[in-house]
Specification:
It is a single chain. The chain is an alpha+beta fold. The protein contains seven helices and 13 strands. Strand 5 and strand 6 form a beta hairpin. It is globular and about 55 Å long. The two termini are about 25 Å apart.
Amino acid sequence: MIKRNSGYFILILLVGLFSSCFQIIEEVNVAANGSGTVNLTVNLSASKTKVASIMLLDSVNGYKVPSKQTIQKEMDEVVAYLRNSPGISNVKKTVDLENYIASVSFAFKNISNINNVNQNVLKKLKIKAINNSSYTYSPETNTFRRDYTHTKQALIEYNKLKPEVKNVFKEASYTSIYRFDKTVSTCSNPLAKISKTKKAVMLNTGMMGLINGKTNISNKIILSK
């Protein structure tokens, strides 16, 4: 889903490319009938002092630094796109430019509604997708799946970056959290952890693993009947 993983915040990440670390967090809440909500967050707060200094500049090492107005405008365009997407509703955004945390949330009628949203947002922002994910949920079998496919484009785009920008991704992280009404019986990904309540599954990994294809975030989660 992310670009993101976090495709929704790529332009904001241009600011964070020069910070020491950033987090991309994807939260998906799935109800028993297959509807639910998504919340996507880019968090640069750990480096907010450095980012604030960069925001005062026009460019850094040849990269144009987007203004706060540009970031707000791009976020507004993404929100407008989501509001016109089939099965998507209740779209909201928050942009905290003091702590450099941005998020967008929305509801979906069926989890299949989110399968094409990420790729289409990337196309809208004229950014090449670096991975593909699809989501399915079967109420009949109580099974949730995320099927993730790494593409070589991820590494190709990464290798185009300047060395100082590449270093940023070494400390960057991606976190996915899936929450359910029912308790979780099993999950297939060995990197994932089931919460103490057994109603959520979390997977946390470094961005480099996703870029070079060494980390697979596919998951099959079976819920109790």
